[in-house]
């Protein structure tokens, strides 16, 4: 499913978070939103997810206008920087949550849920830890559980907010590579926020660079690195040649 | 012995043990010694007399109901105070502590004046045939009043610490507001809620000052156990008084032990750090 956003504006009191942002994420792409802190990248992701509403502008999923839809109606999988796992539920119950809360008419049977959760546990390679609680997992394991939980509802798109931000460098690298492989297998349209350019350029098909709430450049990693659009991009990426 | 990084372990532990012994343990021992210092038959006769049995039921029963009521309304109050910003919030927040600060006798007199058959609230209720003062209902109201802050104050920091993330995650996964509350927020706040209810209960069981005014102290009807301790003391029956005290002590201890067992089981279930 593709994501298209059109002329988004968002202000928090006297702070402009998004200024006339338009963007298209094509079906099956893995796109990174890259920018310094305060550039509006997380706000943009939250507006797309339906966790925040823009002052003006529209959001489309596959040409369907979802601007007024609630977060759940949009069916976006969302992964938080600090995992946001349910501490009192086991890994299994965390992943099953999105299926368990469905109204009876559309809720899968207990067996179906179990099967689905085990598939996801296999996918994140944590089959042995189904009975553990989040506090008993490492940071990398927690984030994988959060991802499986988001995937359980079969989301149309996957949105990740600094998914590796709270992890140490080694785990970050591993999980980054794992996300790329995962995306190659599932081809779910994904958008992830990061302030780490190495991460953005290594993982994403396309990189969107934001600053002060507006888009500075959109392009393939290589293209941005060889042809920065303006002085900000050049400076932010630390490129030391003249345009 | 393993070297410790934090200094002062022995000093602080030693101090705590000695302090607890002086302040808590020795009075308990004295109480027990006093109860057994005489004919056992006499003490047994006192603590199992019909008048006492009725008072145990009244004291522990109303304390239990009052603490459960406080659990419900304390939760709602703590919720409102931590989750929303509204004018007058700070004023309400400071009012919560009033039952802590007020001498209990003052609370008792105020409540009695209010709920007496000619009081502001008591008069209209009396017309409806509901007697509050000099009745068990009055005791319940006094116990609710004095126990309320315990629940609010134990819940507030826990509710404040719940992150928005978790609620947003639940909403994204399709949980309704009610499901989010029941499946996510409530279980996270439950241990603190149990603690608050327990504290409120403990306070209510031992409460004397605010209850004796409003209860009317009618034998076999509205006599709470602490009142009977005072009654025994006034009759110079120190053994009997100590015996009743011992019964209350044991009952409270058992209840606290039970609640702690629940808490221990509950936290162990999802908080052990063993990897």
Summary, kept brief:
The complex is a heterodimer of chains A (243) and B (275). With 243 residues, chain A is α/β, with parallel strands linked by helices.
What does this structure look like?
The complex is a heterodimer of chains A (243) and B (275). Chain A is α/β, with parallel strands linked by helices and 243 residues long. Chain A is built from nine helices and ten strands. Chain A has helices spanning 41-49, 71-74, 91-100, 110-123, 139-152, 169-186, 197-203, 221-226, 231-237, and strands at residues 3-12, 15-25, 30-34, 56-61, 64-65, 76-79, 157-161, 189-194, 206-211, 214-219. Chain A starts with a strand and ends in a 6-residue tail after the last helix. With 275 residues, chain B is mostly helical. In chain B, helix 3 (50-83) packs across helix 10 and helix 6 (104-115) crosses helix 8. Chain B starts with 8 loop residues before the first helix and ends with a helix. Chain B is globular and about 65 Å long. Chain B has two domains: 1-35; 40-274, MetI-like (MetI-like fold, Orthogonal Bundle), CATH 1.10.3720. Chain B has helices at residues 9-36, 40-47, 50-83, 89-95, 98-101, 104-115, 122-127, 136-161, 164-172, 177-206, 209-215, 225-234, 238-271. The longest helix of chain B is centred in the first third of the chain and has 34 residues, at 50-83. The interface between A and B is medium-sized, with 32 and 24 residues.
Secondary-structure map:
The complex is a heterodimer of chains A (243) and B (275).
Chain A: E1 3-12, E2 15-25, E3 30-34, H1 41-49, E4 56-61, E5 64-65, H2 71-74, E6 76-79, H3 91-100, H4 110-123, H5 139-152, E7 157-161, H6 169-186, E8 189-194, H7 197-203, E9 206-211, E10 214-219, H8 221-226, H9 231-237
Chain B: H1 9-36, H2 40-47, H3 50-83, H4 89-95, H5 98-101, H6 104-115, H7 122-127, H8 136-161, H9 164-172, H10 177-206, H11 209-215, H12 225-234, H13 238-271
Helix pairs in contact in B: 1-13, 2-13, 3-8, 3-10, 6-8, 6-11, 8-10, 8-11, 9-10, 10-13, 12-13
């Amino acid at each position: 499913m593709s994501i298209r956003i059109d002329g988004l504006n968002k202000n928090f009191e006297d702070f402009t978070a998004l200024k006339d942002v338009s963007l298209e994420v094509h079906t099956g792409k893995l796109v990174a939103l890259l920018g310094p802190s305060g550039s509006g990248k997380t706000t943009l992701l939250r507006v797309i997810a339906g966790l925040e509403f823009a002052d003006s502008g529209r959001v489309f999923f596959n040409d369907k206008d979802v601007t007024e839809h609630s977060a759940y109606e949009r069916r976006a999988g969302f992964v938080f920087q600090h995992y946001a796992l349910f501490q009192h539920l086991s890994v299994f119950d965390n992943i099953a949550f999105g299926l368990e809360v469905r109204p009876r008419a559309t809720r899968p049977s207990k067996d179906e849920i179990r099967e689905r959760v085990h598939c996801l546990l296999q996918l994140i390679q944590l089959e042995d830890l189904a009975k553990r609680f989040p506090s008993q997992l490492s940071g990398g394991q927690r984030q994988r559980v959060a991802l499986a939980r988001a995937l359980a509802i079969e989301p149309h798109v996957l949105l990740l907010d600094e998914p590796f931000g709270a992890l140490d460098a080694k785990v970050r690298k591993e999980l980054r590579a794992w996300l790329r492989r995962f995306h190659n297998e599932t081809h779910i349209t994904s958008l992830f926020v990061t302030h780490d350019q190495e991460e953005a350029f290594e993982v994403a098909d396309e990189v969107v660079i934001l600053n002060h709430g507006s888009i500075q450049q959109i392009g393939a990693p290589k293209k941005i690195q060889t042809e920065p659009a303006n002085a900000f991009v050049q400076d932010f990426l630390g490129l030391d040649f003249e345009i | 012995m393993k070297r410790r990084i934090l200094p002062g372990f022995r000093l602080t532990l030693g101090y705590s043990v000695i302090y607890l012994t002086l302040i808590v343990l020795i009075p308990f021992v004295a109480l027990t010694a006093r109860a057994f210092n005489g004919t056992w038959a006499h003490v047994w006769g006192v603590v199992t007399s019909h008048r006492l049995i009725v008072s145990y039921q009244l004291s522990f029963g109303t304390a239990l109901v009052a603490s459960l009521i406080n659990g419900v309304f304390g939760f709602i109050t703590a919720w409102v105070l931590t989750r929303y910003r509204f004018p007058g919030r700070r004023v309400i927040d400071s009012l919560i502590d009033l039952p802590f600060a007020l001498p209990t006798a003052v609370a008792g007199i105020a409540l009695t004046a209010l709920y007496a058959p000619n009081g502001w609230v008591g008069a209209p209720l009396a017309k409806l045939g509901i007697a509050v003062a000099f009745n068990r209902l009055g005791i319940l109201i006094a116990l609710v009043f004095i126990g309320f802050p315990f629940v609010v104050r134990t819940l507030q920091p826990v509710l404040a610490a719940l992150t928005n993330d978790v609620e947003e995650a639940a909403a994204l996964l399709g949980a309704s507001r009610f499901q989010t509350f029941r499946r996510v927020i409530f279980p996270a706040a439950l241990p603190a809620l149990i603690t608050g209810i327990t504290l409120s209960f403990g306070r209510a069981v031992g409460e004397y000052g605010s209850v004796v005014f409003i209860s009317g102290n009618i034998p076999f009807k509205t006599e709470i156990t602490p009142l009977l301790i005072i009654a025994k003391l006034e009759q110079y029956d120190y053994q009997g008084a100590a015996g009743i005290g011992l019964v209350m002590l044991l009952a409270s201890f058992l209840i606290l032990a039970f609640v702690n067992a629940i808490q221990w089981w509950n936290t162990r279930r999802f908080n052990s750090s063993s990897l």
